[in-house]
Amino acid sequence: MSFAADVRNELARIIPDKECCRKAELHAIFVTNGQEFTMPNEEYLLLVKVENAATARKVFQLLKKTYYLQANVEIDNKKRFNKTRRYKVSAVLDTEQKKDLADFKVSLNAKNIINRAWVSKSCCRKAFLRGIFLNRGFISKPEGNYHLEIVLNNSKLASELIKFFSKFDLQARIVQRKQQIVIYIKESEQIVDFLRITGASKALLHFENIRILKSMRNTVNRQVNCETANLAKTVEAAVRQIELVEKLSMNEKLENLAAPLNEIAHLRVSYPDATLRELGEMLNPPLSKSGVAYHMRRLEKKANEIIEHEKK
Ligand SMILES: [Zn+2]
Questions:
Q1: Ligand 1 centroid distance, CA of 25 (Å)
Q2: Which of 64, 84, 94, 104 is most solvent-facing, going by the fewest CB within 10 Å?
Q3: Is CATH 3.40.50.300 the right assignment for the domain spanning 3-199?
Q4: 180 φψ region: left (φ > 0), alpha (ψ -120 to 50), beta (else)
Q5: Protein residues with C-beta less than 5 angstroms from the ion ligand 1
């Protein structure tokens, strides 16, 4: 099963204890798909079409626990271009239930599609976010690129949601994809926050584990690259120094060098793999790494001078 489906299934199992939160979550699901009230045969019918089985299960549970409704869930057979199946959740309402549920009627022409009355408390805002993701959300597995998105078909709702996200310090961005409006988050920290807010603890744990593994791998790679580069520089310098010392030695100039240059020159040739620090420790009296580096520069300069002089 995909990571997105894992997250959805985890979120579908959360049934809030508080009635206010259950209503907020229902509002989120209704708002993202719209809902119809019809009256066939003098009866009241609530009908909501949702995007996946997990959301259908959730709507069923929320209606049952909040309004004691026994809803009916079926697969919507209407063909759609993108081929994903939708689910129809319907219930026959009595007059009282219809009055209660009338508040859920979504008006796309209203000033705000998201009814602030449902999401005024922070517990309800979390539930609302969960409902939005359940019905319309997608998340990539953390092993790849970090990505979380909400696919909508209403640009006004999209911009309201962006503002809603910002209440949680979630900076979602918006993009048009064919007929749809997509709001998305790419930053792993923000995706972690999203999972935490909506209560997907199991998914959060998995996401964090993978994230830690990935960042450790990056650190190790960086360290190896850095050590390789340093090693290459050290070897290059040692080769250059040894060549100079050998030239001096051929010209019998090596013995004329004053201490500690002569000593450093001998040690360089005897221990080609040694670092400057190690060469310094072998000297008597010992020298620091920067001390050896200083004398090494003098040695190179002197050697070059002698070699230049010999050429004339
Ligand atoms: Zn609440």
A1: 9
A2: 84
A3: no
A4: beta
A5: 18, 20-21, 121, 123-124
State whether residue 206 is helix, strand or coil.
Answer: helix
CA of residue 97 to ligand 1 center, whole Å: 21
At 168 the pLDDT is 95
Sequence spans of domains, the chain = 3-199, 231-311
Residues of the chain with pLDDT under 50: none
The answer to whether the beta carbons of residues 24 and 221 sit under 8 Å apart is: no
Candidates 168, 149, 167, 169; CA nearest to 158 is 149
pTM for the whole structure: 0.71
In 3D space, the residue among 262, 232, 296 whose CA is nearest the CA of residue 288 turns out to be: 296
Q: Provide the pLDDT for residue 227.
A: 82
- Return all residues near 99 (Cβ < 8 A) that are at least 6 apart: none
Strands 35-38 and 44-50, by their bridges, are antiparallel
